[in-house]
Specification:
heterotrimer; A mainly alpha; B alpha+beta; C mainly alpha; B: alpha+beta; seven-stranded mixed beta sheet; four-stranded mixed beta sheet; 19 strands; 31% helix; C: mainly alpha; 11 helices; 0% strand
């Protein structure tokens, strides 16, 4: 029963966020940063500006909706990068074994030794700010878990009968990995990927808050929060409240979705980490 | 004659009584909790090594320089000397030093200490920021280049008399009041203790420093002003976040707090807090520098167009929350050479479009605007101005960098436009000299301004002996800058400090409001740390 | 056990070496020189002065030379001199370690003390309203952006209710620690709650527990001994893993509360381009994390003698 609730609620929230992102040009009421009028700065939610305006007189609702594009894109793309890297390394490491596996294991341990936000900070400090740096930084910091799963799966599966059969039939390693092994580990990988997306969105928000994330003037939910730090004191609570809620509900949706997917795809999961 | 004296005496007495009735006597004792709002730490306890405003807060408590800034008269006055005589056509200044200035380690100050400090600063291998001030003394450059061991322009007549000869006829007070020229003790430096346990001539002596958090200083009983300092102790709390300071101030955890624009508004509207808001026009001009190397900016009409296209008053009202004064030209409000008759650029987008068309850009153009995260002259301002420029066809691309990068890249000329805050005082001539063609970009001519007529005006002002003539020439130069518009004139800083009702003795320091000379501050019994 | 400890410590060495190399390489590529961090008053700078500083700091030597120097100094415990503060990096780090440790340990303590019992409570009555409520709260706790939570908590408890101070380290007293620790501890707490609940449920249904029950051991004994011990193993993994995340997230929390720890040092050093400080900071954080992991592994062997590392 629970798993249905998770899937439904999570799926709905996530779909809402994706819908907002995709439909942004249609459902936004104003341009996210050029349609700004200082005369209208810091207005509370009303009929013209659905969720109020920020310090520069920009419509918060439109910025949240456009910001969904950036925040979600960063979350999805960086997690995709992580998943691809992790799966490839883990799969090949577990299947081929030997020196390559040692290298992969060592690399994984190394990555697990560096706290991810710190590593992302370091990469951004080196590459400079910007969307590319952000994607690279986030894309390189979260693949270790996926790698471990893929590797463990590959190790346990490679001695299975059908895999051995495929080998004797002369299938290439690549073919075996992609067609025999990969489909069997898809479940846990999807679960981790979904949960990882939530983490990536939170990480993007944190980095933008620190001023190291998405570059202005295009909004991201994290940068909207960073702009709004003072607004709480002067009582314009809507300025930080709505972007914060947007992050919260989207990540919540992803977390619920991930949980629900785990219950469906991977009920024996030994990895109850997230 | 007797009558005159009697009259004077009576007047004085009356004035004295009236004054007494108005002022309260400073109370001795208690602790003051100041905040250092310009970052997450203090740079160094060795004041010679850092020019940061953040460290200057501590310097005003623990150290002294030869001159001090008179906050009421807005000019430098000699501090570590009882008198100064000028001779040799204004080049030589002879100081009769105080004989009651004692270092925190108990030793009296002599002329040797001043010579030692200034010579240390000119050590060419170290790159001390104070060098730019001491270089005004004859022979200093030779020490910097390692061609001499001593500064020839510094001559000790005796322990209590020092003669300083300058390179040109300027008022030395502007240079020698800088914290980076503080008089330090040789033994404190040579023992290496200066960075952990600094010794100075100021009213408070160093007690402890918890990096990233706070510094504590205690009353120096042997300070040369009798009865001062009043406070027992001063805490300097490092708090870079305006919102954090705000909450702490309302909780009575701190006594002084610099307000950002958002808090300024909130405090002014709060019936309790508004009584404790201290405003001073500071000597900083915020501006958008335009690099003539980027073709559109080479044309004066384009620069003027930008000044017309931006509704600067609205930006000052909405984004700066009135915590700034609309800028007219380069020199700030408090400058003696500020011309009240000069009207700032009018908000006129139509005129802007016309000027752009005349200059050959009827459809506008693009440029990259470099800025930092600063809330008063950084990203929020750029984001607010973007739509205004867009309306006249100018597309600005934002490039966000750290403040440290600005300081590095701009003097190299490696930018198209920047938003920055520059010191334009307290010496008006120095501020105007920035636009002299001989001034390199690395000094302060950040936009590489080059105009022969302007150079002539500034040179004439420097050579003028008659102060009225000097002032007039400076006003003309300032007006020419207005016309040439090398930058978008944004605003002059209004420094605002919130203070608790029990704090007294605050000085309206236009050079930097957080720099309070510690000996004049005191707290009354209402302070929670009055004991 | 001693052998195990030594072996684990030895295993750390290649990892540390790799981290040092990675960090050094990363940061030697950083564009822009450091000199600007020392003269940022916007009043103009002396190019001669900047050039001299560069030479003094050895930044004009080729990279392999700099790396060799760096490693050589590391071996003697010299992490270089901070560009900005002009004191040894070790000193700068030492000053910030105390607050960082306090914050991390307090947050972890909060998370463990609240999270684990919550998880137990939820697991003992699966499917109940209490279980559902707890789990919803837990998943929400994992979805909150920390800085937002921190700001809201500061607003509520410090500004509105005036119960707690809003910022900073103060005199090091407990009052200042509460809000930052809670903000930092919320998501590990949520994680522990979920992990504990899952672990307890899994083990309650495990064969050996059923066997023990069928043998007639008292319910309480069953739960407290077998279950607890096995749960502890699984939870310990989570704790070890969380420490790394905690150290990362502390960076953001320290910014919000002006907490003078390694995290805020890292941010300000990156902004100031104070490379030695950044390198030193990251090194310390990583070492700390590795040490925790090693400690967790050793603790495993104490709890469950069946677990051995070959």
């Amino acid at each position: 029963m629970r798993l249905r609730v998770n899937l439904v609620m999570g799926g709905a929230l996530f779909a809402l966020a994706v819908g907002a992102a995709v439909l942004a040009p249609l459902i936004a009421t104003h341009h996210p940063f050029l349609d700004a009028n200082l005369m209208n700065s810091e207005l509370p939610p009303g009929s013209e500006y659905l969720l109020g305006t920020d310090k520069q007189g920009r419509d918060i609702y439109s910025r949240i909706v456009w910001g969904a594009q950036i925040s979600l894109m960063v979350g999805v793309v960086s997690q995709l990068i992580n998943t691809v890297i992790g799966t490839m390394l883990g799969l090949t490491g577990g299947y081929w074994g030997g020196k390559w596996d040692d290298f992969v294991s060592g690399l994984t341990n190394l990555m697990l030794s560096i706290p991810s936000l710190i590593f992302a900070l370091a990469i951004i400090a080196v590459l400079g700010r910007g969307l590319m740096s952000l994607l690279i930084a986030l894309g390189l910091t979260n693949w270790s878990f996926t790698c471990r799963i893929a590797r463990a799966s590959a190790l346990s599966l490679k001695s299975q009968g059908y895999v051995q059969a495929a080998k004797t039939l002369g299938y290439s390693d690549m073919r075996i990995m992609l067609t025999q092994l990969l489909p069997n580990m898809v479940g846990p990988i999807i679960v981790i990927g979904t949960l990882g997306m939530g983490g990536a969105i939170l990480a993007e928000a944190a980095l933008s808050f620190l001023g190291l994330g998405v570059q202005p003037p295009w909004p991201s939910w994290g940068s909207m929060l960073s702009d709004a730090r003072d607004a709480i004191i002067t009582g314009q609570v809507w300025i930080p409240l709505f972007p914060g809620l947007a992050i919260f509900f989207t990540v919540l949706g992803l977390n619920l979705l991930g949980d629900g997917l785990r219950d469906v795809l991977d009920p024996q999961s030994k990895v109850r980490s997230a | 004659m007797i009558k005159k004296i009697a009259l004077a005496a009576v007047t004085l007495a009356l004035v004295g009584v009236a004054a007494d009735a108005q002022t309260t006597t400073p109370r001795k004792g208690g602790t003051l909790r100041m905040t250092a709002p310009y970052g997450t730490s203090l740079s160094s306890l060795d004041i010679h090594t850092t020019p940061r405003a953040q460290d200057g807060i501590v310097a005003k408590l623990i150290h002294r320089s030869l001159y001090k800034w008179d906050t009421a008269a807005n000019k430098p006055v000699v501090e570590l000397a009882t008198s100064v005589t000028v001779s040799n056509g204004g080049l030589t200044h002879t100081y009769k030093l105080r004989d009651d200035a004692v270092f925190h380690n108990g030793r009296k100050m002599t002329a040797d200490d001043i010579i030692f400090s200034y010579t240390r600063i000119m050590d060419g291998s170290k790159g001390y920021p104070g060098a730019r001030w001491i270089r005004n003394i004859k022979g200093a450059v030779d020490v910097e280049k390692n061609q001499a061991k001593e500064i020839s322009g510094l001559r000790k007549i005796d322990d209590g008399t020092l003669e300083i000869t300058l390179n040109e006829k300027i008022e030395p007070g502007f240079a020698l009041m800088a914290d980076t020229t503080s008089i330090l003790a040789k033994e404190n430096i040579e023992s290496g203790n200066i960075t952990s346990n600094p010794v100075g001539l100021g009213p408070f002596k160093f007690k402890e420093h918890l990096p990233g958090s706070r510094l504590v200083a205690e009353r120096w009983d042997k300070f040369y002003k009798p009865g001062q300092p009043y406070l027992d102790r001063v805490f300097v709390l490092v708090m870079g976040e305006a919102s954090a300071r705000d909450v702490a101030f309302r909780n009575n955890e701190i006594d002084l707090s610099i307000l950002g624009p958002a808090q300024y508004l909130a405090y002014k509207n709060d019936p309790d807090l508004q009584k404790g808001v201290f405003e001073v026009a500071e000597v900083f001009t915020r501006n958008m520098g335009m690099n003539p190397a980027h073709k559109p900016f080479a044309d004066k009409r384009v620069r003027q167009a930008i000044n017309h296209a931006i509704d600067t008053d609205l930006v000052v009202k909405r984004l700066s929350k009135e915590k700034a004064y609309r800028a007219t030209s380069w020199l700030p409000l408090t400058s003696p050479a500020y011309d009240k008759a000069l009207k700032p650029y009018a908000y006129d987008p139509e005129k802007a479009k016309k000027l752009l068309a005349e200059a050959g850009y009827p459809n506008g153009f693009e440029f990259e605007w470099m800025t930092s995260q600063n809330e008063s002259w950084g990203l929020p301002i750029v984001e607010g101005v973007l739509p205004m420029l867009d309306k006249v066809g100018i597309k600005a691309k934002v490039r966000l960098v750290e403040a440290a990068v600005l300081t590095e890249v701009i003097p190299k000329g490696d930018y198209q436009a920047y938003l920055w805050s520059n010191a334009t005082g307290p010496d008006p001539l120095a501020a105007l000299k920035c636009y002299h063609s001989q001034t390199p970009r690395t000094a302060c001519n950040y936009v590489g301004f080059n105009n022969t007529d302007y150079d002539k005006l500034v040179d004439a002002a420097g050579a003028a002996d008659d102060p009225a003539k000097r002032l007039d020439l400076m006003k003309q130069a300032n007006a020419m800058l207005y016309e040439e518009a090398p930058v978008w004139f944004f605003n002059y800083n209004k420094a605002v400090m919130a203070y608790q009702p029990w704090v007294h003795g605050l000085q309206p320091n236009a050079t930097e409001l957080t720099h309070q000379y510690g000996e004049d501050l005191w707290v009354d019994e209402k302070s929670p740390v009055a004991k | 056990m001693l052998l195990l400890t030594l072996r684990r410590l030895a295993q750390m060495i290649p990892t540390v070496a790799a981290v040092v190399l990675t960090i050094f390489v990363l940061f030697s590529v950083v564009p822009g020189s450091i000199a600007s961090s020392m003269f940022d008053d916007g009043r103009g700078m002396d190019p001669q002065v900047m050039e001299r500083k560069r030479k003094e700091l050895g930044l004009d030597k080729p990279i392999h030379q700099r790396f060799v120097d760096y490693v050589g100094k590391l071996a003697t415990g010299d992490l270089g001199r901070s560009f900005k503060y002009d004191v040894p990096v070790t000193q700068v780090l030492a000053d910030r370690m105390g607050p960082s440790l306090k914050l991390t340990l307090a947050a972890m303590a909060f998370a463990i003390v609240i999270g684990i019992p919550l998880g137990f409570f939820a697991a003992l009555k699966p499917g109940s309203l209490g279980d559902f409520g707890t789990m919803v709260a837990a998943v929400s706790g994992l979805s909150l952006p920390k800085f937002w939570l921190g700001l809201m908590l500061a607003y509520l408890f410090a500004l509105q209710l005036k119960w707690l101070p809003s910022f900073g380290y103060g005199d090091g007293g407990l009052r200042y620690l509460i809000l930052p620790a809670v903000t930092l501890g919320v998501s590990p707490m949520a994680l522990f709650a979920r992990t504990t609940r899952a672990a307890v449920l899994e083990i309650m249904n495990a064969d050996f527990v059923r066997t023990a029950r069928s043998k007639g051991m008292g319910e309480v004994r069953v739960v407290s001994w077998h279950v607890a011990r096995n749960v502890l193993v699984l939870v310990l993994t989570a704790v070890g893993l969380q420490f790394g995340a905690l150290l990362s997230q502390a960076v953001v929390v320290e910014q919000v509360f002006s907490w003078p720890g390694l995290g805020s040092l890292l941010i300000s050093s990156i902004n100031d381009r104070d490379i030695p400080a950044v390198q030193g900071c990251i090194l310390v954080i990583v070492l700390f994390f590795l040490a925790i992991n090693a400690a967790v592994d050793v603790a495993y062997s104490l709890i469950d003698p069946r677990i051995r590392y070959g």
